[in-house]
């Protein structure tokens, strides 16, 4: 199989191929903000916090404020975890929340929800990823991290040098600076050179649930003598890969899929993948920017 075909297969993993026939909308103020799998519907039906019909799930009418909705979700999911339910997701409880917004990141806040519960609710989340690279005699080399073996998800797999979800109360740049320090020991002076490079959107549907995600992307040409050093025990090591080695890595089985997409986007934008040599060029680019259902 050609590299183009393999890269296309990677991108297809970031699409919801099963559709939403087995899901029910989670609705706030007559608009859909999540999709709950029918196998989890019973949990919501048994809860005092939600009104469940054949068409959707909604908060009870008395939950009108951000604080009330957020507290209800915390209590609901914390109870499920303590009862040993949905442990494939809630077993990775983080005591960290993601914010759900009325339209897009930074618009009106609707509620906050425990990060581990996001795939159950199926609401949109946001993250930030950094492509860190150097140039030696005009040739690119790209840094990759290797995730720690103790990580609850994707242990030991390749990752971007810096990446993280945007927690409640943090902005995009704030998150990048925080993650750069924690994950790669980058000083404020170094990370300040990072350049925004757009965003990617996709939907992951797997054993954890469904997750529409938007990732804000930054590029950073690093000093030749910079060596990343992990501060939060989430990376076991870092590797500096040639373009050819990185191209092979991102289409292999040992690269976290959404992080592979970040690198594929980087390779395309920097002209390191040629359209004439990539039959699936247009389709791959389209899949890097997939529309979400809501």
Any key phrases for this structure?
294 residues, 29% helix, alpha+beta, 7-stranded mixed sheet
What does this structure look like?
The chain is of the alpha+beta class. 29% of the residues lie in helices and 31% in strands. It has ten helices and 13 strands. It has helices at 3-12, 41-45, 66-82, 87-90, 118-121, 172-184, 188-191, 243-250, 257-269, 281-288; strands at 23-28, 31-37, 50-52, 57-59, 97-101, 109-114, 125-136, 139-147, 158-160, 162-165, 195-206, 209-221, 235-242. Strands 7, 8, 9, 10, 11, 12 and 13 form a seven-stranded mixed sheet that branches. Strands 2-1-4-3 form a four-stranded mixed sheet. Strands 5-6 form a two-stranded antiparallel ribbon. Strand 1 (23-28) and strand 2 (31-37) form a beta hairpin. The two termini are 34 Å apart. The mean pLDDT is 95.
Secondary structure blueprint with pairings:
Blueprint: H1 3-12, E1 23-28, E2 31-37, H2 41-45, E3 50-52, E4 57-59, H3 66-82, H4 87-90, E5 97-101, E6 109-114, H5 118-121, E7 125-136, E8 139-147, E9 158-160, E10 162-165, H6 172-184, H7 188-191, E11 195-206, E12 209-221, E13 235-242, H8 243-250, H9 257-269, H10 281-288
Parallel strand pairs: 1-4, 7-12
Antiparallel strand pairs: 1-2, 3-4, 5-6, 7-8, 7-10, 8-9, 8-13, 11-12
Helix pairs in contact: 1-10, 8-9
What is the share of helical residues? 25-40%
Class by alpha and beta content: alpha+beta
Give the percentage of residues in beta strands: 25-35%
The quaternary structure here is: single chain
Please write the string of helix (H) and strand (E) elements.
HEEHEEHHEEHEEEEHHEEEHHH
How much is the radius of gyration in Å? 20 Å
Give the strand tally: 13
Major sheet characteristics: 7 strands, mixed
Number of helices: 10
């Amino acid at each position: 199989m050609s590299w183009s075909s393999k890269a296309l297969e990677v991108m297809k993993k970031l699409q919801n191929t099963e559709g939403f026939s087995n899901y029910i909308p989670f609705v706030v103020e007559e608009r859909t903000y999540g999709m709950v799998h029918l196998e989890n519907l019973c949990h919501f039906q048994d809860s005092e916090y939600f009104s469940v019909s054949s068409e959707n799930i909604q908060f009870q009418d008395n939950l009108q404020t951000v604080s009330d909705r957020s507290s209800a979700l915390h209590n609901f999911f914390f109870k499920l975890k303590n009862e040993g339910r949905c442990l494939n997701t809630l077993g990775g409880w983080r005591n960290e929340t993601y914010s759900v917004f009325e339209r897009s990141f930074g618009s009106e806040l609707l509620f906050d929800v425990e990060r581990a519960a996001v795939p159950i609710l199926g609401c949109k989340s946001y993250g930030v990823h950094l492509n860190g690279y150097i140039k030696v005699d005009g040739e690119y080399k790209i840094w990759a991290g290797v995730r720690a073996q103790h990580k609850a998800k994707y242990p030991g797999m390749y990752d971007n040098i810096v990446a993280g979800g945007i927690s409640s109360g943090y902005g995009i740049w704030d998150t990048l600076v925080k993650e750069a320090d924690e994950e790669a020991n980058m000083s404020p002076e170094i990370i300040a050179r990072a350049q925004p490079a757009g965003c990617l959107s996709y939907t992951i549907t797997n054993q954890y649930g469904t997750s529409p995600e938007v990732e804000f992307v930054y590029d950073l040409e690093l000093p030749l003598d910079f060596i990343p050093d992990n501060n939060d025990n989430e990376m076991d090591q870092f590797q500096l890969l040639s373009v050819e080695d990185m191209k092979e890595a991102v289409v292999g089985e040992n690269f976290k899929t959404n992080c592979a997409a970040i690198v594929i986007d980087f390779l395309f934008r920097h002209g390191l993948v040629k359209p004439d040599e990539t039959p699936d060029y247009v389709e791959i680019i389209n899949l890097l920017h997939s529309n979400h259902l809501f």
